Amino acid sequence: MGREHHSRDRHRRSRSRSRERQEAERSERRSHRRYSRSRSRDRNPSRKHMKEKKEKKRDKKHHKHSKKTKEADELLEMEAMRKLVKENADDMLLPMDFGSVGYGGERDPRDKAFSTAFGMTGMSSSTTGFVAERHKPDTKVRPPKRGDKPGPQDWVCPKCQTINFKQATDCFKCGRLRGSANSGFFQTPSA
C-alpha cells in the first residue's frame, strides 16, 4: 500500500508540472502574436498619422493649460497689488479725527461748514473722511496731553484752533507763527 500511494503522488506532480509548462507556452505565444501585430501596425501610414495627430492634440492641450495657469498667476498678482495699494492708501490718509487736538477736542470750524455744504450734517468728522496735508509737529515743544488744563499764558492758534504752550513760537499743528501779521491770536482767559 505504501508503494501505490507514493507512485500516485509522483504522477500528480508530473501532471501539475506539465500543466504549468503548457500555460507558460500559451502565454508566450500570445505575447509574441501581440508584439508582431503591434509592429505591423506601427508600419502602417494611417497609424503614423494618428500618432502625429495625438501628439499635436496633447501639445495643444498642454499649451492651453499653461495659458490658463499664466492667467491665474496674473490674477493673483493683480489681487496682491490691489491689496498693497489699499494698505498704502490707508496709510496716506490722516487719522479721521484730525480736528480733535488739545484739551477738550477743539474742532476746525471749516469742518462743520464743509459737511453742511455737502449734505453731511449729523456725521462726525471721522466718517466724513477729510484729508489734509500731513506735516511733522514741532519736536521742540510737545503737544498738550488730553486732560491737561491750559496754563494762563497758553495761546490758541486762529487758523487751526489748537491750544499751544506759552513757550511755543509757532503752532505745533499748522506751523503758523504766534506773532504773525493778522494772526489774531488771543490769550486764554485766566482761570
Automatic annotation (TrEMBL):
<protein>
    <recommendedName>
        <fullName>RanBP2-type domain-containing protein</fullName>
    </recommendedName>
</protein>
<feature type="compositionally biased region" description="Basic and acidic residues">
    <location>
        <begin position="132"/>
        <end position="151"/>
    </location>
</feature>
<keyword id="KW-0862">Zinc</keyword>
<keyword id="KW-0479">Metal-binding</keyword>
<dbReference type="GO" id="GO:0008270">
    <property type="term" value="F:zinc ion binding"/>
</dbReference>
<keyword id="KW-0863">Zinc-finger</keyword>
<feature type="domain" description="RanBP2-type">
    <location>
        <begin position="149"/>
        <end position="180"/>
    </location>
</feature>
<feature type="compositionally biased region" description="Basic residues">
    <location>
        <begin position="29"/>
        <end position="38"/>
    </location>
</feature>
<feature type="region of interest" description="Disordered">
    <location>
        <begin position="1"/>
        <end position="75"/>
    </location>
</feature>
<feature type="region of interest" description="Disordered">
    <location>
        <begin position="114"/>
        <end position="154"/>
    </location>
</feature>
<feature type="compositionally biased region" description="Basic and acidic residues">
    <location>
        <begin position="17"/>
        <end position="28"/>
    </location>
</feature>
<feature type="compositionally biased region" description="Basic residues">
    <location>
        <begin position="46"/>
        <end position="68"/>
    </location>
</feature>
<dbReference type="InterPro" id="IPR036443">
    <property type="entry name" value="Znf_RanBP2_sf"/>
</dbReference>
<dbReference type="InterPro" id="IPR001876">
    <property type="entry name" value="Znf_RanBP2"/>
</dbReference>
